[in-house]
Amino acid sequence: MRHRSASSLGLALVVSSSTPLILLNEQLVVKAASGSFCRSFSVDCNSVVGRELFELGEGEWDIPQLRSLLTATAAGNAAIDAYEMDLKRAGSPTRHLVIHAHVLDHEEDEAPRLAVAVTDVTEALQARRAHDALVQEKQVLLQELNHRVANSLQIIASVLMQRVRIAQSEETRTHLREAHHRVMSVATLQRQLASSATGDVALRPYFADLCASIGASMIPDPELLCLSVEADDSVTTADRSVSMGLIVTELVINSLKHAYPAEAKGRIKIGFHSNGDAWTLTVADDGVGIDGGHESGKSGLGTGIVNALAAQLGATVEVTNAEPGCLVSIVHRETAAATVP
């Protein structure tokens, strides 16, 4: 009596299930099917019981691999977890299904029953494919945009250098050279970000590449002046890396312009270190220092740019007379609602 009650309960659970579910015996004959299964796959609930699963519909369930898996599962030799298959029926769109099948617990003298759950993931799969296609399209467009931006920056840089050569005033030439250096630094930042495969940017190689670009365009004799980077393994988001890169560019240009008299030797060090949510970006030179005419901390375009970018990052600017030289620190302190660099 207990066996019949347990069997009846299993049948009742399958029939009343709101998900597509069927109950098979060890010969893979349908013993019960939920109304959801019948509706989802256009099967007559009144005639489904007593038929093999593979006879249902127009034979679309008769798939050799599915038959093998269900046979092995019914024999207790396997279990089906998330088996994916395409259900093809004449005159209907192909449906992508995920199958789960397990033998229900039963007494030794009781015939085994196989519960098979069927999930139609066609719409989800189509949505995923559409999303992937959209992402691919956006990547192509972004690559094209990066290419055009790079070309435009190179054109602007070339025009600025042409203006430098024909300018009559030394002051005008100086301003044009500064503009050229800024454009080239932005071009370097753009190139580095365009080559980044992810949204995160490793800061040590990022600053190293940036300094190499600045040095190549602004340091005529690397034996006299050089740039170096001392940074930990911190990474940051692309938008933050742009602000940091522009800060480094402005501070390095400022040191190269004002910290070293003609033929003076020196080294400009770029540093970055983080501790939790706090971080410090530094640019230090060993030049004349603030008392000797260094422009850091004084009003000007470069200083205004650095202060504005630091404010965007939620950081403060600290200028110190390093004796010798000048140290500029961009400091982001840890806060309760912390922002990761």
Automatic annotation (TrEMBL):
Catalytic activity annotation: ATP + protein L-histidine = ADP + protein N-phospho-L-histidine
Lineage: superkingdom: Bacteria
Keywords from the named record: ATP-binding, Kinase, Nucleotide-binding, Phosphoprotein, Transferase
Top-tier EC class: transferase
GO terms assigned for molecular function: ATP binding; protein histidine kinase activity
Pfam families according to UniProt: HATPase_c, HisKA_2, PAS_4
EC number: 2.7.13.3
Key word Cell wall biogenesis/degradation present: no
Domain Histidine kinase/HSP90-like ATPase: 239-336
Protein name: histidine kinase
Organism for this UniProt entry: Sphingomonas horti
